[in-house]
Target: AMP-dependent synthetase/ligase domain-containing protein
Amino acid sequence: MADSEVFTNGERPFYGQKLLPHLLREVSKSDPQKPWALVFETSDIFKGFRTVNVRDISNAVNATAWWMHNQLGRSDHFETVAYIGISDIRYEIVHLASINCGYKLLCISVRNSDSGYLSLLEATKCTKFVCSSELLAKGKHIKDLVPNLQLVQLPSFDEMLSGNIADYPYDKIFAEAENDPVLICHTSGSTGAPKPITLTNGNWAVIDNLRKIPKTLGRKNQDWSLFNYENRDCFLSSFPPFHATGMIAMALPLLYNSVIVVPPPDRPATGESCLEIMHVLERHHRTLRGLLVPPTVLEQLVQEPDGLQQTSKLDFVMFTGGPLAPSVGDRLSQVTDICQLIGSTETGPLPGLVPERKNWSYFEWQPFYKIDMEAWADDAFELVIRRCRLFTARLTKNSGQ
Model:
């Protein structure tokens, strides 16, 4: 398929009608030096970071797609290929390469039990498994559980950049590929076997489309479009890539004008490590605009000597995965906006409005979404989203660039 079928007159396609492989190819040609990520590669944060640009990602995706093609073959019916690795940018590379090769990628948590691994691999009919060198022992252990599993070791990021970087063909258009399955995330398994959740190209189109939700006078929309910065500023995400939020965060620099800051993969993110990263970025004159972290990180951050002072320089902090201690939220709301996400793996976070700081602990629904809180039992209410034909038509109409 010629690029002109997707990028008319050299312009990007309508928002909400993009396929990630085509968008990556177009941006790598039009703006190859656009930074994608600032990667802290070792636990010694003060050693600094590595800047990864769009061309680096594009080259790595092409090399990995050719590698997968040679190692695993190409899939014509969306076979599942599983990946487990340390929390680095290769998750996004493997995801995009898998789409190119016709697979859907199963991102498996390193925290699963043996029964959890078995349940997920069986439920997704997975027979092909990729792991990073750092977790090769884990990969071999899982293969012992499933003898017919084909296990291959993923090249390092530097090896990817030295591989075959010729464009790997991906010839679909959005109309035919919107509902193609491309990613499988899974629930935590805290109440039983982890449940696989399949996401499609359409799910990524929704994320891309959020910028078209109308604005409410005097308010800011609370959705992924918050990460669309005029000056390609940064946000830090500490969610692991096998978590749906972590995977979305890794892809945001392709969809929006932002740069993700990736913490060291060999130590869990804490309030202390986030503060160290904030100091390093400041020293290198990189502007950090937001944090996307679990509430525990924020609770630790405010306990650091200059945690609040550094946080006051941010546009917002965003959290999900559990409640934030009220005393911590009260302190943070004095210096920055607080955004808490509510949603599901299937739907993603529900769009809302950034709450006024005095109301930080509340959700405020997006007025252009038809959300009802229906009485369910006693003082309990059920959140119901109504389909709005007028709003749907507005989002699918081209809004230009």
In short: The longest helix spans residues 54-72. The chain has 14 helices and 19 strands. The mean pLDDT is 91. The first strand starts at residue 35 and ends at 39.
